[in-house]
Amino acid sequence: MNDFGTALIFFVAFLVIAYLRSGDFATLALICTGTGIAGVLAMRFRPYLKRRFSAWRHIWEDPLGTGFQQTRAMMCIASGGLFGLGAGCGWLKYVAAADTDLVFAFVSEEWGLIIAGTALAALVIVALFAVKCAGNARSSYFVIAACGTATLLLFQTMLNVGGSLDLLPLTGVTFP
């Protein structure tokens, strides 16, 4: 499976679960070191990963090539303004995979930054609620499950929004 974004989400959730289970930072450092070495090897054998990372923070240098999706996403976020253009009136729907990879930009353009911010706030509140409920859990299994789920939700959201705004490399993960 060549889905780097999903693998990254599961890896971050694994780190949180491993920490909650062991509480040992040395183990996490060893895991991250091994994963870093594997990441370097993956970039050597999977050139599309290297292209995605090289385009990150340089999308305006090639707006018709490697930066096409992200430049269009940022322009559409700006054109939507606070209240949006209206349902179905956006331009981003003509960009390939915008309805899955660039959902934050899609919502921002058609419904505005207020609704997009509300969607983000709703996801953060759900994740915080899961972590709050973990404090009252009956066993460590429920604590780990609640925190792992909150991590999956928040990290996937962060990758989608960060990728749309070129704050993070575009990984192609959906908005939860």
Care to describe what's here?
There is one protein chain. The chain is an all-alpha fold and 176 residues long. Helices cover 69% and strands 0% of the residues. It has helices at residues 4-22, 25-45, 47-55, 68-80, 98-101, 103-111, 113-134, 140-164.
What sort of overall outline do the alpha carbons produce when their principal axes are compared?
flat
Unreliable sequence segments: none
Q: Per DSSP, what share of the residues sits in E-state strands of 2 or more residues?
A: under 5%
User: If helices are DSSP runs of H or I spanning 4 or more residues, what is the number of helices?
Assistant: 8
Number of strands: 0
What secondary-structure arrangement, pairings included, does this model have?
Blueprint: H1 4-22, H2 25-45, H3 47-55, H4 68-80, H5 98-101, H6 103-111, H7 113-134, H8 140-164
Task: Please supply descriptive tags for the structure shown above.
single chain, 176 residues, mainly alpha, 8 helices, 69% helix
